[in-house]
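sorry for the late reply, my laptop died twice this morning and i had to redo everyting from scratch. anyway the thing you sent over, i finally got around to it. pasting the sequence first so we're on the same page, its 317 residues, then the predicted structure underneath. double check i copied it right bc i was rushing
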Amino acid sequence: MVSSALVVAALACTSKNDGGGAAKPIDGASGTGGTNTAGAGADNGDGHGSGQSGGGQNGSPGAALNGDAGASESGGAGAAAMGCKRGIAANTAPGPAFSPIVAWWYDWSMKGAGSVEFVPMAWGKGDVNTAVPASAKYLLTFNEPNFHAQSNLTAQAAAALWPTLESNAKAAKVPLVSPGMNFCGPASDCNGTDPYQYLKDFFAACKDCEVDYVAVHWYNCDLPSLKDYLEPGGSLEGFEQFGKPIWLTEFSCDGKASAADQEAYMRAAVPYLEANPHVFRYSWFSADPIPNAKLVADDGSPTNLGQVYLGLAQDCR
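ok and here's the structure:
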């Protein structure tokens, strides 16, 4: 049973690709500003929600792809290879000032530009047949499929679509990142509320699927709950159980937090993520409806918080 305090913390500020370029963030309170209505809140009905699904090979949690954490079947970079982890999830491309500290970014769509590496995302079912851009090094997939208001796929439906994504990834010679997960609620708005169970169901339905990384979101504003979310042995199951390197593709405090709160959390979380060998990449959420979390100004330059993000120590291997 998930502790109520941590479920309350599983707030999401999620975005949708409308097929026309940059994704549009969803305002969980008003439902404005996006092509979807907002994801439902965490189990306390707070009004926000998030989730992405993840995957493994042969439905075997704890086993790296092919038993070799240093190799990727899809032909791209090895699953255990490390580089600079730091990224940004945003609707505005980070400008030259962000490079090389920020190594990558994405905007919930298949096509993007900018001064740093863009990672495409097959946001939902409509993107499955879209070719992977030639410049891509990885492919992110289904955004919060357990939310009806996001990519809205059951674990079984995601598994059925996965072979096409595999084919596209192999053609582009890039590794595949799992759909991204978080807690969903209320249950009537979800394809399952528990992100760990969703992944287990996905693996069971997709036993021969190739998945190189697991992607997750988290919007609580303290380091202990972030650790509990990712690591086993606490009040939550932890995503390390799936035996895949983790991409934390959205994280920040929620929309109620002050700018000072956002900075304090960032200063606590980033050193942990840099040092955690199970975290392959992470990206701070820099978009509406959380204005105090934004790192990128409209012209692509760093905000004050963006300068903090750039100034934190980094360990690139």
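Helices lie at 4-9, 155-172, 195-205, 223-230, 259-275, 304-311.
thats about all i looked at so far, will dig more tmrw
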